[in-house]
Design a protein that fits this description.
Blueprint (H helix, E strand, L loop, with lengths): L4 E3 L5 E3 L8 E4 L2 E4 L2 E5 L4 E8 L6 E9 L8 E2 L6 E18 L2 E14 L3 H4 E11 L2 E10 L4 E9 L4 E3 L5 E4 L8 E4 L7 E8 L3 E10 L2 E11 H4 L2 H10 L7
Antiparallel strand pairs: 1-2, 3-4, 4-5, 5-6, 6-7, 7-9, 8-9, 9-10, 11-12, 11-19, 12-13, 13-14, 15-16, 17-18, 18-19
């Protein structure tokens, strides 16, 4: 188990330290993960970060406060057997970030969701694309999965500011340029709309996270897009590379 923290831009930082079962401390309104924790005070999710970066060990300390507003409680199954679930709890919320190491502060819009399941992702999925776009009246979230059984699921969800969710027919798919590692990427947009990759935030052999610009429901939008290739993830060479980015806690 781990808390993943990624800071993009300058300074750029990454932390994802794998810890054993004993590092988790669960209480009714708080979850401790080693020296870090997540706590709910009734209105705000407070993430207290006390991590060490990788691959160069440096302290990463600070606090992220996420205020969700109306919460969506609808849960979606991602596979036919119902072994994998996803809940976009707060697709359009507010975040306040205050870090001591490195020293930085900012605030803006945020997104909060949760995935959980009863089997490894690579056992049931070949790959998937996910994206979230803020809209003038809420947010749009897309989740397209290719399953191991040969079937496919494509979710297109539109959320309003009151917490309501509408499931829509998926807009047309648009292929994006492959990442530098060759990960295939595609997203959705209004018919005839162009899509531009403004920045690739994470570029790994099996996963890419990008900022893209397009048109959705008639509005020009910028959002976050993710592509995950689970065939690559389960390959032995990739597994041997993971400890450099995801170290074990005993290394520190």
């Amino acid at each position: 188990m781990a808390l993943n923290v990624a800071l993009y831009g300058r300074p750029r930082r990454w932390a994802l330290t794998d810890r054993g079962r004993g590092a988790a401390r669960q209480e009714p309104m708080r979850l401790g993960l080693g020296p870090s924790s997540l706590a709910w005070d009734g209105e705000t999710l407070v993430v207290s970060v006390a991590e060490v970066t990788a691959p160069v060990p440096r302290p990463l300390r600070g606090e992220v406060r996420i205020t969700p507003g109306p919460v969506n409680r609808r849960v979606f199954t991602l596979d036919a057997a119902g072994r994998h679930r996803w809940c976009p709890m707060a697709p359009a919320c507010r975040a306040e970030v205050a870090f001591e190491a490195p020293a930085l502060r900012w605030s803006g819009t945020a997104y909060l969701d949760g995935n959980w399941g009863d089997a490894p992702l690579e056992a049931d999925f070949v790959d998937w694309d996910w994206s979230r776009f803020p809209l003038p009246d809420g947010a749009a979230v897309f989740y397209d999965t290719r399953r191991r059984d040969g079937s496919r699921q494509s979710l297109a969800l539109r959320f309003d500011r009151a917490g309501g969710v509408e499931e829509l027919p998926p807009p047309p798919f648009v292929r994006l340029p492959r990442s530098l590692w060759g990960v295939a990427r595609r997203t959705q947009a209004d018919p005839g709309a162009s899509v531009a990759v403004l920045r690739t935030l994470e570029d790994t052999p099996f996963y890419a996270r990008s900022v893209v610009r397009t048109r959705l429901f008639g509005a020009e939008v910028e959002g976050v897009h993710e592509s995950l290739d689970l065939d690559r993830f389960r390959a032995l060479p990739i597994r041997l590379m993971l400890p450099f980015k995801v170290p074990r806690a005993w290394l520190w």
